[in-house]
Design brief:
- This protein is α/β, with parallel strands linked by helices.
- It is built from ten helices and 14 strands.
- Strand 6 and strand 7 form a beta hairpin.
Protein backbone atom coordinates (compact mmCIF):
# COMPACT_ATOMS: atom_id res chain seq x y z
CA UNK A 1 0.00 0.00 0.00
CA UNK A 2 1.47 3.35 -1.09
CA UNK A 3 0.21 6.55 0.56
CA UNK A 4 0.63 10.07 -0.82
CA UNK A 5 -0.63 13.18 1.01
CA UNK A 6 -1.86 14.69 -2.24
CA UNK A 7 -5.02 14.27 -4.27
CA UNK A 8 -4.25 12.24 -7.41
CA UNK A 9 -7.37 11.27 -9.33
CA UNK A 10 -7.85 7.57 -10.19
CA UNK A 11 -8.42 6.49 -13.79
CA UNK A 12 -11.57 7.84 -15.40
CA UNK A 13 -12.05 10.78 -13.04
CA UNK A 14 -11.80 14.51 -13.74
CA UNK A 15 -12.50 17.55 -11.59
CA UNK A 16 -12.58 21.34 -11.52
CA UNK A 17 -13.22 24.25 -9.22
CA UNK A 18 -14.13 27.86 -9.97
CA UNK A 19 -15.20 31.09 -8.26
CA UNK A 20 -18.80 31.78 -9.30
CA UNK A 21 -19.45 34.54 -6.77
CA UNK A 22 -21.14 32.68 -3.92
CA UNK A 23 -18.33 33.79 -1.60
CA UNK A 24 -17.97 37.55 -1.12
CA UNK A 25 -14.21 37.01 -0.87
CA UNK A 26 -14.03 35.95 -4.50
CA UNK A 27 -12.41 32.65 -3.56
CA UNK A 28 -13.18 29.33 -5.27
CA UNK A 29 -16.69 28.22 -4.33
CA UNK A 30 -18.01 25.74 -6.90
CA UNK A 31 -16.56 22.28 -7.58
CA UNK A 32 -17.41 19.42 -9.89
CA UNK A 33 -16.21 15.82 -9.69
CA UNK A 34 -16.85 13.75 -12.81
CA UNK A 35 -16.40 10.11 -13.78
CA UNK A 36 -16.21 9.24 -17.47
CA UNK A 37 -17.64 5.83 -16.57
CA UNK A 38 -20.87 5.29 -14.59
CA UNK A 39 -19.85 4.52 -11.00
CA UNK A 40 -21.25 2.66 -8.03
CA UNK A 41 -21.89 5.07 -5.15
CA UNK A 42 -22.18 4.78 -1.39
CA UNK A 43 -22.84 7.58 1.07
CA UNK A 44 -23.24 8.37 4.75
CA UNK A 45 -25.08 11.51 5.82
CA UNK A 46 -25.59 13.50 8.99
CA UNK A 47 -28.02 12.03 11.52
CA UNK A 48 -29.30 15.53 12.30
CA UNK A 49 -33.10 15.65 11.85
CA UNK A 50 -32.72 19.02 10.13
CA UNK A 51 -30.98 18.27 6.84
CA UNK A 52 -29.98 20.54 3.99
CA UNK A 53 -31.79 20.59 0.64
CA UNK A 54 -28.92 19.04 -1.36
CA UNK A 55 -28.95 16.02 0.94
CA UNK A 56 -32.65 15.54 0.24
CA UNK A 57 -31.91 15.55 -3.50
CA UNK A 58 -28.86 13.28 -3.20
CA UNK A 59 -30.74 10.76 -1.06
CA UNK A 60 -33.54 10.66 -3.67
CA UNK A 61 -31.05 10.03 -6.47
CA UNK A 62 -29.25 7.32 -4.50
CA UNK A 63 -32.56 5.50 -4.11
CA UNK A 64 -33.68 5.88 -7.73
CA UNK A 65 -30.44 5.31 -9.65
CA UNK A 66 -27.80 2.58 -9.65
CA UNK A 67 -24.92 4.40 -11.31
CA UNK A 68 -23.55 7.93 -10.91
CA UNK A 69 -21.20 10.16 -12.85
CA UNK A 70 -20.94 13.56 -11.18
CA UNK A 71 -20.95 15.41 -7.88
CA UNK A 72 -21.63 19.17 -7.74
CA UNK A 73 -20.45 20.95 -4.58
CA UNK A 74 -20.72 24.58 -3.60
CA UNK A 75 -19.31 26.40 -0.58
CA UNK A 76 -20.38 29.76 0.83
CA UNK A 77 -24.02 28.68 1.26
CA UNK A 78 -25.36 25.54 2.97
CA UNK A 79 -28.76 25.70 1.20
CA UNK A 80 -30.32 24.58 4.47
CA UNK A 81 -33.49 25.74 6.23
CA UNK A 82 -34.59 27.07 2.86
CA UNK A 83 -37.74 24.95 2.50
CA UNK A 84 -39.12 23.70 -0.80
CA UNK A 85 -37.39 26.55 -2.62
CA UNK A 86 -34.02 25.20 -1.45
CA UNK A 87 -34.80 21.74 -2.80
CA UNK A 88 -35.82 23.27 -6.14
CA UNK A 89 -32.58 25.28 -6.20
CA UNK A 90 -30.55 22.10 -5.68
CA UNK A 91 -32.52 20.32 -8.41
CA UNK A 92 -32.10 23.23 -10.83
CA UNK A 93 -28.34 23.29 -10.18
CA UNK A 94 -28.18 19.57 -10.95
CA UNK A 95 -30.16 20.20 -14.12
CA UNK A 96 -27.57 22.67 -15.39
CA UNK A 97 -24.80 20.08 -14.96
CA UNK A 98 -26.88 17.29 -16.52
CA UNK A 99 -27.62 19.40 -19.59
CA UNK A 100 -24.01 20.45 -20.06
CA UNK A 101 -22.55 16.94 -19.51
CA UNK A 102 -25.43 15.24 -21.34
CA UNK A 103 -26.05 12.76 -18.52
CA UNK A 104 -29.14 11.89 -16.48
CA UNK A 105 -30.04 14.19 -13.58
CA UNK A 106 -30.38 11.14 -11.32
CA UNK A 107 -26.71 10.28 -11.97
CA UNK A 108 -25.62 13.52 -10.30
CA UNK A 109 -25.22 14.04 -6.55
CA UNK A 110 -25.10 17.47 -4.96
CA UNK A 111 -23.64 18.98 -1.77
CA UNK A 112 -23.44 22.42 -0.20
CA UNK A 113 -21.59 23.94 2.74
CA UNK A 114 -21.60 27.37 4.35
CA UNK A 115 -24.15 29.66 5.96
CA UNK A 116 -27.54 28.20 6.94
CA UNK A 117 -30.84 29.95 6.20
CA UNK A 118 -29.97 31.91 3.05
CA UNK A 119 -31.36 31.17 -0.41
CA UNK A 120 -28.80 29.75 -2.83
CA UNK A 121 -28.08 32.04 -5.79
CA UNK A 122 -28.53 29.53 -8.60
CA UNK A 123 -28.07 32.28 -11.17
CA UNK A 124 -24.40 32.47 -10.23
CA UNK A 125 -24.10 28.70 -10.45
CA UNK A 126 -25.75 28.69 -13.89
CA UNK A 127 -23.35 31.33 -15.18
CA UNK A 128 -20.40 29.27 -13.93
CA UNK A 129 -21.41 25.85 -15.30
CA UNK A 130 -19.84 26.24 -18.75
CA UNK A 131 -16.48 27.22 -17.24
CA UNK A 132 -16.76 24.48 -14.63
CA UNK A 133 -17.45 21.71 -17.16
CA UNK A 134 -15.09 22.90 -19.91
CA UNK A 135 -12.25 23.03 -17.40
CA UNK A 136 -12.65 19.45 -16.19
CA UNK A 137 -9.27 17.69 -16.10
CA UNK A 138 -7.18 15.24 -14.09
CA UNK A 139 -5.30 18.15 -12.49
CA UNK A 140 -8.55 19.99 -11.75
CA UNK A 141 -8.75 18.26 -8.37
CA UNK A 142 -6.33 20.92 -7.08
CA UNK A 143 -9.00 23.57 -7.65
CA UNK A 144 -11.89 21.37 -6.56
CA UNK A 145 -10.33 20.61 -3.16
CA UNK A 146 -10.07 24.37 -2.48
CA UNK A 147 -13.54 25.19 -3.78
CA UNK A 148 -15.21 23.07 -1.07
CA UNK A 149 -13.45 24.86 1.82
CA UNK A 150 -15.13 27.24 4.29
CA UNK A 151 -13.19 28.10 7.47
CA UNK A 152 -10.52 25.54 6.58
CA UNK A 153 -6.96 26.86 6.57
CA UNK A 154 -5.66 24.07 4.33
CA UNK A 155 -7.04 21.52 1.89
CA UNK A 156 -7.45 17.97 3.16
CA UNK A 157 -6.28 15.41 0.61
CA UNK A 158 -4.76 11.95 0.32
CA UNK A 159 -4.24 9.20 -2.25
CA UNK A 160 -3.50 5.48 -1.95
CA UNK A 161 -2.37 2.79 -4.35
CA UNK A 162 -3.15 -0.85 -3.59
CA UNK A 163 -3.32 -4.13 -5.51
CA UNK A 164 -6.45 -6.23 -5.73
CA UNK A 165 -6.08 -9.66 -7.35
CA UNK A 166 -2.88 -8.47 -9.01
CA UNK A 167 -4.41 -5.29 -10.45
CA UNK A 168 -3.26 -1.81 -9.36
CA UNK A 169 -6.15 0.14 -7.81
CA UNK A 170 -6.13 3.81 -6.82
CA UNK A 171 -8.16 5.68 -4.21
CA UNK A 172 -8.26 9.45 -3.72
CA UNK A 173 -9.99 11.44 -0.99
CA UNK A 174 -10.62 15.13 -0.34
CA UNK A 175 -12.47 16.67 2.59
CA UNK A 176 -13.43 19.94 4.23
CA UNK A 177 -14.11 20.65 7.88
CA UNK A 178 -12.70 22.63 10.79
CA UNK A 179 -15.64 23.56 13.02
CA UNK A 180 -19.05 22.11 13.98
CA UNK A 181 -17.35 18.73 14.28
CA UNK A 182 -19.19 16.02 16.20
CA UNK A 183 -19.79 12.28 15.78
CA UNK A 184 -22.66 10.99 13.57
CA UNK A 185 -20.99 12.52 11.54
CA UNK A 186 -18.45 15.26 12.01
CA UNK A 187 -19.47 18.52 10.33
CA UNK A 188 -17.70 17.93 7.12
CA UNK A 189 -17.85 16.92 3.52
CA UNK A 190 -15.69 14.09 2.23
CA UNK A 191 -15.46 12.77 -1.32
CA UNK A 192 -13.62 9.57 -2.15
CA UNK A 193 -13.03 8.39 -5.71
CA UNK A 194 -11.63 5.03 -6.73
CA UNK A 195 -11.13 3.13 -9.99
CA UNK A 196 -11.83 -0.15 -8.18
CA UNK A 197 -14.60 -2.40 -9.38
CA UNK A 198 -16.64 -3.23 -6.28
CA UNK A 199 -20.18 -4.45 -5.63
CA UNK A 200 -22.63 -1.96 -4.11
CA UNK A 201 -23.24 -4.03 -0.96
CA UNK A 202 -19.52 -4.49 -0.40
CA UNK A 203 -18.90 -0.75 -0.82
CA UNK A 204 -21.69 0.07 1.62
CA UNK A 205 -20.24 -2.34 4.18
CA UNK A 206 -16.75 -0.88 3.82
CA UNK A 207 -17.96 2.71 4.16
CA UNK A 208 -20.11 2.09 7.24
CA UNK A 209 -17.17 0.48 9.03
CA UNK A 210 -14.69 3.16 7.92
CA UNK A 211 -16.88 6.09 8.99
CA UNK A 212 -17.68 4.54 12.36
CA UNK A 213 -14.00 4.12 13.21
CA UNK A 214 -12.72 7.42 11.78
CA UNK A 215 -15.03 10.39 11.22
CA UNK A 216 -17.28 9.25 14.06
CA UNK A 217 -14.24 9.19 16.36
CA UNK A 218 -13.36 12.88 16.09
CA UNK A 219 -14.86 15.94 17.74
CA UNK A 220 -13.98 19.63 17.77
CA UNK A 221 -16.94 21.19 19.54
CA UNK A 222 -19.65 18.53 19.81
CA UNK A 223 -21.89 20.41 17.34
CA UNK A 224 -23.51 18.38 14.56
CA UNK A 225 -24.10 19.97 11.15
CA UNK A 226 -27.01 19.72 8.75
CA UNK A 227 -24.92 18.98 5.65
CA UNK A 228 -22.43 16.24 6.68
CA UNK A 229 -21.67 13.83 3.86
CA UNK A 230 -19.13 11.12 3.11
CA UNK A 231 -19.47 9.92 -0.46
CA UNK A 232 -17.57 7.22 -2.38
CA UNK A 233 -17.65 6.73 -6.15
CA UNK A 234 -16.16 3.55 -7.64
CA UNK A 235 -16.05 3.47 -11.45
CA UNK A 236 -14.29 0.14 -12.09
CA UNK A 237 -11.73 1.62 -14.51
CA UNK A 238 -8.93 -0.37 -12.85
CA UNK A 239 -10.33 -3.52 -14.45
CA UNK A 240 -9.96 -5.69 -11.37
CA UNK A 241 -12.27 -8.60 -10.67
CA UNK A 242 -15.30 -7.10 -8.93
CA UNK A 243 -14.78 -7.04 -5.17
CA UNK A 244 -17.65 -8.59 -3.24
CA UNK A 245 -16.21 -10.46 -0.25
CA UNK A 246 -13.19 -12.26 1.15
CA UNK A 247 -9.58 -11.09 1.08
CA UNK A 248 -10.13 -8.56 -1.71
CA UNK A 249 -12.82 -6.80 0.33
CA UNK A 250 -10.53 -6.79 3.37
CA UNK A 251 -7.77 -5.13 1.34
CA UNK A 252 -10.12 -2.50 -0.06
CA UNK A 253 -11.80 -1.86 3.29
CA UNK A 254 -8.44 -1.38 5.02
CA UNK A 255 -7.43 1.18 2.36
CA UNK A 256 -10.75 3.05 2.58
CA UNK A 257 -10.49 3.21 6.37
CA UNK A 258 -6.95 4.58 6.10
CA UNK A 259 -8.12 7.27 3.66
CA UNK A 260 -10.89 8.30 6.08
CA UNK A 261 -8.58 8.09 9.10
CA UNK A 262 -5.98 10.42 7.60
CA UNK A 263 -8.62 12.93 6.48
CA UNK A 264 -10.27 12.82 9.92
CA UNK A 265 -6.94 13.62 11.59
CA UNK A 266 -6.42 16.54 9.18
CA UNK A 267 -9.77 17.97 10.24
CA UNK A 268 -8.68 17.97 13.90
CA UNK A 269 -5.29 19.45 12.97
CA UNK A 270 -7.24 22.29 11.32
CA UNK A 271 -9.82 22.68 14.10
CA UNK A 272 -11.05 26.25 14.42
CA UNK A 273 -8.84 28.26 16.77
CA UNK A 274 -7.11 25.16 18.11
CA UNK A 275 -3.59 25.10 19.55
CA UNK A 276 -3.57 21.41 20.52
CA UNK A 277 -4.16 18.11 18.73
CA UNK A 278 -5.47 15.76 21.43
CA UNK A 279 -5.37 11.96 21.24
CA UNK A 280 -7.55 10.15 23.79
CA UNK A 281 -7.01 6.42 24.17
CA UNK A 282 -9.42 4.45 26.33
CA UNK A 283 -8.34 0.87 27.00
CA UNK A 284 -9.39 -2.17 29.04
CA UNK A 285 -13.07 -1.47 28.35
CA UNK A 286 -15.75 -4.18 28.17
CA UNK A 287 -16.16 -3.63 24.42
CA UNK A 288 -15.22 -1.18 21.67
CA UNK A 289 -18.50 0.74 21.92
CA UNK A 290 -17.95 1.37 25.63
CA UNK A 291 -14.41 2.54 25.00
CA UNK A 292 -15.57 4.83 22.19
CA UNK A 293 -18.38 6.42 24.19
CA UNK A 294 -16.11 7.11 27.16
CA UNK A 295 -13.43 8.59 24.91
CA UNK A 296 -15.94 10.83 23.15
CA UNK A 297 -17.38 11.98 26.48
CA UNK A 298 -13.91 13.21 27.40
CA UNK A 299 -13.39 14.73 23.96
CA UNK A 300 -16.66 16.70 24.20
CA UNK A 301 -16.04 17.99 27.72
CA UNK A 302 -15.72 21.78 27.59
CA UNK A 303 -13.96 21.75 30.97
CA UNK A 304 -11.38 19.23 29.75
CA UNK A 305 -10.77 21.05 26.45
CA UNK A 306 -10.29 24.44 28.12
CA UNK A 307 -8.00 22.89 30.73
CA UNK A 308 -5.78 21.55 27.94
CA UNK A 309 -5.68 24.99 26.34
CA UNK A 310 -4.62 26.48 29.68
CA UNK A 311 -2.03 23.72 30.16
CA UNK A 312 -3.78 22.84 33.40
CA UNK A 313 -3.14 19.13 34.26
CA UNK A 314 -6.51 18.79 36.00
CA UNK A 315 -7.17 15.05 35.69
CA UNK A 316 -10.42 15.60 37.60
CA UNK A 317 -11.94 16.91 34.37
CA UNK A 318 -11.17 13.54 32.76
CA UNK A 319 -12.50 11.54 35.71
CA UNK A 320 -15.75 13.52 35.75
CA UNK A 321 -16.25 12.98 32.00
CA UNK A 322 -15.67 9.23 32.36
CA UNK A 323 -18.16 9.02 35.21
CA UNK A 324 -20.77 10.95 33.24
CA UNK A 325 -20.55 8.56 30.26
CA UNK A 326 -23.41 6.40 31.57
CA UNK A 327 -21.37 3.32 32.51
CA UNK A 328 -21.07 2.08 36.08
CA UNK A 329 -17.32 2.61 36.37
CA UNK A 330 -15.89 2.49 39.90
CA UNK A 331 -13.16 4.78 41.19
CA UNK A 332 -10.76 1.92 41.88
CA UNK A 333 -11.09 0.75 38.26
CA UNK A 334 -10.16 4.08 36.71
CA UNK A 335 -6.58 4.96 35.84
CA UNK A 336 -5.69 8.24 34.09
CA UNK A 337 -2.44 9.46 32.59
CA UNK A 338 -1.90 12.83 30.92
CA UNK A 339 0.95 13.56 28.54
CA UNK A 340 2.74 16.90 28.47
CA UNK A 341 0.27 19.76 27.96
CA UNK A 342 3.09 21.90 26.62
CA UNK A 343 3.31 19.74 23.51
CA UNK A 344 1.31 20.45 20.34
CA UNK A 345 0.22 16.79 20.32
CA UNK A 346 -1.32 15.95 23.71
CA UNK A 347 -1.93 12.32 24.66
CA UNK A 348 -4.44 11.10 27.25
CA UNK A 349 -4.56 7.49 28.42
CA UNK A 350 -7.54 6.09 30.34
CA UNK A 351 -7.85 2.52 31.62
CA UNK A 352 -11.25 1.24 32.75
CA UNK A 353 -9.90 -2.08 34.07
CA UNK A 354 -13.05 -3.88 32.84
CA UNK A 355 -12.00 -5.81 29.74
CA UNK A 356 -9.68 -5.91 26.73
CA UNK A 357 -11.28 -3.46 24.27
CA UNK A 358 -9.81 -0.09 23.32
CA UNK A 359 -10.66 2.91 21.16
CA UNK A 360 -8.79 6.07 20.19
CA UNK A 361 -10.57 9.39 19.61
CA UNK A 362 -9.11 12.69 18.39
CA UNK A 363 -10.14 16.18 19.45
CA UNK A 364 -8.76 19.69 19.93
CA UNK A 365 -8.57 22.25 22.70
CA UNK A 366 -11.18 25.01 23.00
CA UNK A 367 -9.76 28.50 22.73
CA UNK A 368 -10.77 32.19 22.66
CA UNK A 369 -9.98 32.15 18.94
CA UNK A 370 -12.68 29.50 18.40
CA UNK A 371 -15.21 31.83 20.02
CA UNK A 372 -14.00 34.75 17.91
CA UNK A 373 -14.34 32.77 14.65
CA UNK A 374 -17.86 31.52 15.39
CA UNK A 375 -19.14 34.74 16.93
CA UNK A 376 -18.58 36.42 13.56
CA UNK A 377 -19.63 33.58 11.24
CA UNK A 378 -22.62 34.81 9.26
Amino acid sequence: MKKVLKAILPAGFKANGIACGLKKSGKLDLALLYSEYPAVASAKFTTNSIIAAPLVVSKTHLKSAKRFQAVLINSGNANCFTGKAGIKDAQVSVGYVAERLKIAKSSILVNSTGIIGKRLDVGKIKRGIDELVSGLSCSGIDKAKKAIMTTDTFAKEISLSIRIAGKPVHICGIAKGAGMIAPDMATMLCFVMTDASIAKKALDKSLVSAVDRTFNCISVDGCMSTNDTVLVLANGAAGNKTVSAGKDLQVFSKALELICFELAKMIILDAEGATKFIQIEVCRAKDWHEAKKVALNIANSTLFKTAVFGRNPNFGRVAAAVGASGFNIKEHQLKIKLGSLKAKHVKVWVSLSRGKARCTVFTSDLTPEYIKINAAYN
